[in-house]
Amino acid sequence: MKPFDYTLDFKNIDFRADPELYRVGKGEQGVLLVEPYKGEILPHWRFKTPELARESADKIYQMFLEYLDKDDFVGADMARKFLQMGYTRSRRYANHKSGRKYKQNPQKETSPAAQLQARKNLLPNEPDPVKAESAAIFKEKWMQAKTNEKYLQLLEKHKQIHESD
Length: 165
Prior knowledge:
This protein is mainly alpha-helical. The chain has helices spanning about 35-40, 50-70, 75-95, 110-120, 130-145, 150-160. This is DUF4385 domain-containing protein.
């Protein structure tokens, strides 16, 4: 599988019109870059409370199913990524009240040694059961999406057509 291509001109690409340019990548890669899907899904993405998380996860999962009905793999994959991101961000806040895992951002360090050191400076866990509940809500929908039979078929087809060497 080809890696996610961050060199593309994301401001000017319509991935609905040009799905061949889309790469799945790993995890949530590109979730805040790929249009028009980011613009369609992001306004519904919320996890502050379990009530908001349920409404958000249900809406995004419904969008996921609508994309599948249209055989729009890129849209479905983006919805799956937003569900996954709902889980990971909720878990981050469930573990760290500030939402920050590290004292300093390792990605802002310029040398590999400084990045490694920054990753060792974890902030203490401050469990938040409300955010943990939000995470569980998103995880349930994310698992439904990533194991959906039609999604898996479209994923395989996309990889064969657009990501094979």
